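Two proteins were folded this term; both appear here.
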Amino acid sequence: MKLITWNIQWGCGIDGRVDLARIVETARAMADFDVICLQEVADNFAGLKGLDDADQFAQLAALLPGYTRIEGYGVDVAGEGGRRRRFGNAIFSRLGVLSARRHALPWPADTAKKTMPRVAVEATLQTSMGPLRVTTTHLEYYSNVQRQAQARRLRGIHDEACQRAPLPGEFTNKESNVTFDPTPQTVDAILAGDFNFPPENPAYGEIQAPLARGGPAYRDAWVMANGHEPHPPTFCLHAKAYAKQPYCCDFIFASESLSRRVRSIGANLETRDSDHQPMLLELDDR
């Protein structure tokens, strides 16, 4: 199974041109991916550099036929003519999507910081190794207070899911209301996205802290595959708008239950299609 994560900066490359087809082409050149997790996807945000009022969630779906789209919006505000303005993340999967959830992440007040609400998008996929929960997110950039709270919540979401996983799959009270029908739950999970912190930040450890009930905690898949080898720079490698030196802030975390399945992980350090570099994870799924 092959999974890519990428903060696409609404498809705006280092050259200032917005081109979603270029994004998809670059991703396909990296791998014949089963799942792609994208951050900074826009709908009706013409104020962003190089962008018109396009619905990029729909445009990406058209560019990825055969993939199911699961999207979530951190920002969802009123726009002209009654059309909403949305900004968030999306998962596209050609594996079956058993269920999907959207999690609003903490947004505590932080005086004098410009911030925006953040979301985690979750899809439980049917794979040859069984159900796999994939979550993608994009944490706060400017506020450390918010970023720390969001990291804790991501671990909490995983902890809750691990606590649900061993519960019976059927209810004794067979109601006619099918909204209560159980869906597959699993401890096997991947968390991918732009976390806006480097590996030395405390939030990096926060996500990987032990779970309350002893379930399989998240671990950095890069470390699983490469040990103490330094993380590749995934941000500001080809542009210095936010930092003088490139650093890694894009990660793929995998539950400890998947450690034996992590075959490889790497980053595309050549592309200039965004201000972030995409990462590719390969899992042994049999």
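Next, the second protein.
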Amino acid sequence: MEKILFDQAWRFHLGDPTGARWREPDYSTWRLLDLPHDWSIELPRQPDAPSQASGGYSQMGRGRYHKTFTAPEAWRDKQVWVEFEGVYMNAEVRLNGELLGRHPYGYTSYHYDLTPYLKAGEENVLTVLVDNDCQRNSRWYSGSGIYRHVWLHVAGPVHLDPWDVFVTTPQVSAEAATIAVETAVLNASETRQTPILRSRILGPDGSEAASVETPVPVGGGQSKAVAQQVELAAPALWSPDAPALYRLESSLLNGEKVLDAVTTPFGIRTLSFDAEQGFLLNGEPTLLRGGCVHHDDGVLGAASYDRAEERKVALLKASGYNATRCAHNPPAPAFLDACDQLGMLVIDEAFDCWREGKTPYDYHVAFADWWERDIESMVRRDRNHPCVIMWSIGNEVGERNGHSDGEAWAHRLADAIRALDPTRPITSAVNGSREQWPWAQTDVVFDALDVGGYNYQERQYRPDHERKPERVMYASESTAGEAFEHWMSVLDLPYVIGDFVWTSLDYLGEAGIGRVHFEGAQGGFLGDYPWNQANCGDLDLCGFKRPQSYYRDVLWERGDKLYIAVHEPLPEGQEPTITYWGWPLVAADWTWPGHEGETFTVDVYSACERVELFANGQSLGTQPTGRAERLTGTFEVPYEAGTLQAVGYAGEEEVAACELETVGAPAGIRLTADREALSGAGDLSYVTVEVVDGEGRRCPNADHEVFFTVQGPGTIAAVGNGNPVSEEPYRGHTRRAYQGRCLVVVRADGEAGTICLRAQADGLDAAEITIGVSISGSE
């Protein structure tokens, strides 16, 4: 099957075209662009936007896409489909004016058969109407438009469907593995055919590991399911530490002629969930160091570039995570590909609601008619990914206590998934009732599950284990402020297999849920404009680590054993209110001009038995930093420019040290690209921009406005910083530094050459960086 990327050269119009909807618009006036595309991130945020704080005060609305293409004459006898990986939302698709279908859910992938209306050898027009006008339909920033890839699939009359190839590993040991393959062969011709199905397995090194062939008699206009099985010796097992990937090459043959072929990556691994032994991956006890992630790609909005999805996973891996929960919808395929390749365990989640809605126009309006098709899309699309270890049927659904026939719906959804994939457990994220009804009423949903997800319910672990000793549990959501309690439960209780913080990466929308404010205890759940980010991520919107991420390093006993967190000076006479998802206003910063002699509270996060703090070489005493102290020592320190050093001890032995120092005046700019070589249109380089002093140290208080210019075959795709209340746009050529840094995302435009990015700001030495672009082959 030929798979053709169909992202290039679409025309776009925001809003309904002028004139009647049935009248052909003047497409020449429409904007020309490449996908993926999120129009909401391009528009200015507004205090009165209908999306409100949930959507980050972003504008949504309606948009139309139009693509003209010539179908080769060779397609006249072919089957042709278009695949949309994700369109937000309410997509209406037409080919040459003929309605192909409508798809309400913004997060599932789907296909349409173009064959009946396709004009081979002629020009064709594919149009997509996207309607995100009814607000609110989400509790977070959704973005708007065709925000994931679009593909064409072309095959002969006898062909395979990539979603109908299913690989499982029913028997696995260090010595051998049984690989079972279920494949559907489709015959769109009018006559009976008997192709040979060849399933060839290639090992991680690319060599052939096994092969099997089966003749498949299939009648005209029918499909035939084929089961095959092979044995592999000494398999390489997939795990986060060693993500070994195999490839299944499925081919349909007529003699020596290849009628169709599909390649399916997969991994060999075993999963076991047990209340006595916990979670075993390949027979090894594995604690889930997890984080929840929304679908957006930070400063890019919802636009899902492959590199952006890969970077998300790489950032999580670098911060110690081995698991992620896709909240609260199926992710982009590129995200799961990256999890397979880099080694990240995944909970793949279907919905944020069932029939009981949370906003006026969310998925509940379509659930009854569409849940089965969307479940099928998620499972059939994603079931070959070794990274996926659980399927989640929902998040904090209103029916979790049996309300609105919740018990029956929980079983209905769980059974639908088991029919498509019996190899993975079913879970759901369940929260409480704020004491409105007894927690035990949630048993009606938990009883449909294989593993119980607990949102902010660590206090229920022990009593639930007494009631339900066979139940396997994990924190499907927790806060950074309660990270210590949740992780201690994971360490102490074998039936609690992990902790997923809300959230590992910050996200757009649900604005200010993790803020510190001074309105008093009655401050609202979300922040007023200009708040636009949630501000609850361990990593901020640019991917920069925040203090709570360093605390988690200490908690997980990975990386540095010490971190110095200085509490920022507060407005005189005011006490801060930290929201439930927030973190104190602290920073690894000892540069506070104008505050000389003032006393600062300094926390030291420590994985050591005790810690000693020094100011300019003078000891300020020693504090224990064990469990009783929640791995934190607190000191009161008069501010004086110089150095602040923490030393950690095990017994009398010094085992760790870290230091802050007062930096000089801002002098220049430093640019650091995460990748200095790009390939192909749409490839990205994330460039960190830092304001530095004369010795090259980042100035944590610098807020210069930085101006960017680009020369060569690339553009600036986005700019941003970690400031959750900035009113600056994410598209443009300027960005103000926040805590001494900001971010520029450079996008290759599809031509080979060298991109030169220049950054300058008033009073600072400018900086330049070059990024090479090479183009090999065609997409």
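The radius of gyration is 27 Å. Residues 297 and 308 are 6 Å apart (CA to CA). These notes refer to the second protein only.
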